[in-house]
Q: What sequence folds into this?
């Protein structure tokens, strides 16, 4: 059997680690073409020794030199943002697992699409900021995007074998995050530590804060809009605190399909790697009788303004989603560093949206420029 070669963008992150765990379980099916990291070379060194990749990319130059010193001559080393793009251009891989965090994931993901590869997409920001460009490039180059995000994987699994025109709506579930039960007033005093305590998932810090503000669900409705080619009116959000139902699809005859399992990212990652097959695995063992109850609530758009802003920018289109995303990335970083309050995050994003011009049908250059402009605006 021919092994599938995997290029992992962001191997030292939460999705990267879960991906390597899936690969570790199926050594006859998968091998690692490339590992990439920003600066965590202790972990990267362990990963190189275990998986022997042909390519290694390190964003930080000093860290790159250090890894070369520690493990000389074993792999081709690429450095920095340009190195990352070059490596995705020349690597010999079947699947690009796109799991950098934020806007940084866009350009290397595009390189994989241009080469007609399968993209296992965790980096939702790519579709949020450049959904139209990505969709066109995928069609032109015959590249397929397999969602890794658990909600989109759930929807994808529900619509296999179904007709798109028979979908009435997508119902994206959301845990509600750590502040689901808090009042709007209480939100202004929450600490970074509290915001980083997600009730059901263990993830990188940026997406964990996004889950607390519900911007994560906001980014996900835009991601779903592009992935499944559906209008805004056909996308709903439902709070489901247990995170057992990962999302649902309602069809025109009133039937609803759902995908369920205990929360474990290795399941959607594995499906994106093995589709259209399913491999046997023991990651999750869902005992519904033990869970006893699944509950549902409508989202509170007044309390979680970020979710409302995301629905608005999806409607506006153009560079509005890019402005929302860039403002959010900088605001979250500021919150994590203790520079602003939790409730300042949506306020800063709204300011950026009100002050920065929206360009319709942007090309990639316009999107990159818009991202830069928005970051400068928030930093000011
Ligand atoms: P993370 O912060 O844990 O990992 C990010 C990875 O990208 C690390 O390997 C880091 O070294 C690398 N990286 C970060 N910035 C970089 C840069 N500028 N240049 C090069 N490398 C860089 O993040 P994560 O939680 O694994 O999330 C990754 C992506 O997957 C995000 O887009 C997130 O929204 C999405 N996602 C994550 C989860 C999850 O369970 N963690 C679930 C669904 C979707
Ligand atoms: Mg998700």
A:
């Amino acid at each position: 059997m021919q092994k599938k070669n995997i290029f992992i963008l962001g191997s030292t992150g939460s999705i990267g680690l879960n991906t390597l765990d899936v690969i570790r379980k199926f050594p006859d099916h998968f091998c690692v073409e490339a590992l990439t990291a920003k600066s965590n070379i202790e972990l990267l060194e362990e990963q190189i020794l275990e998986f022997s990749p042909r390519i290694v990319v390190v964003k930080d130059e000093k860290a790159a030199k250090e890894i070369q010193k520690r493990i000389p001559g074993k792999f081709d080393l690429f450095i920095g943002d340009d190195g990352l793009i070059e490596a995705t251009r020349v690597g010999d891989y079947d699947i690009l697992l796109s799991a950098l965090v934020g806007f940084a994931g866009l350009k290397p993901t595009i390189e994989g699409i241009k080469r007609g590869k399968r993209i296992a997409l965790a980096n939702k920001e790519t579709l949020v900021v450049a959904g139209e460009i990505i969709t066109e490039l995928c069609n032109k180059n015959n590249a397929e995007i397999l969602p890794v995000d658990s909600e989109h994987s759930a929807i994808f699994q529900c619509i296999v074998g179904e007709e798109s025109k028979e979908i009435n709506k997508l119902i994206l579930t959301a845990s509600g995050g750590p502040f689901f039960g808090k009042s709007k007033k209480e939100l202004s005093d929450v600490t970074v530590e509290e915001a980083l305590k997600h009730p059901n998932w263990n993830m990188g810090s940026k997406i964990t804060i996004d889950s607390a503000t519900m911007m994560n669900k906001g980014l996900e409705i835009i991601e779903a809009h592009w992935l499944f080619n559906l209008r805004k009116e056909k996308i709903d959000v439902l709070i489901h605190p247990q995170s057992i139902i990962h999302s649902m699809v309602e069809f025109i005859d009133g039937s609803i399909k759902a995908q369920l399992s205990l929360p474990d990212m290795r399941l959607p990652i594995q499906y994106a790697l093995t589709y259209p097959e399913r491999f046997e695995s023991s990651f999750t063992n869902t005992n519904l009788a033990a869970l006893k109850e699944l509950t549902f609530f409508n989202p509170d758009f007044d309390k979680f303004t970020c979710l409302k802003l995301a629905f608005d920018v999806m409607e506006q289109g153009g560079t509005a989603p890019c402005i929302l995303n860039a403002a959010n990335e900088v605001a979250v970083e500021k919150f994590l560093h203790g520079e602003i309050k939790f409730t300042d995050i949506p306020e800063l994003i709204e300011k950026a949206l009100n002050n920065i011009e929206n360009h319709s049908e942007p090309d990639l250059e316009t999107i990159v420029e818009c991202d830069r402009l928005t970051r400068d605006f928030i930093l000011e």
User: Anything to note?
Assistant: The chain has a mean pLDDT of 97. The chain is about 45% helix and 15% strand. The pocket of nicotinamide-adenine-dinucleotide (ligand 1) is lined by residues 10-16, 37-38, 40, 59, 99-101, 104, 122-125, 149, 201, 203-204, 206-207, 265 (CB under 6 Å).
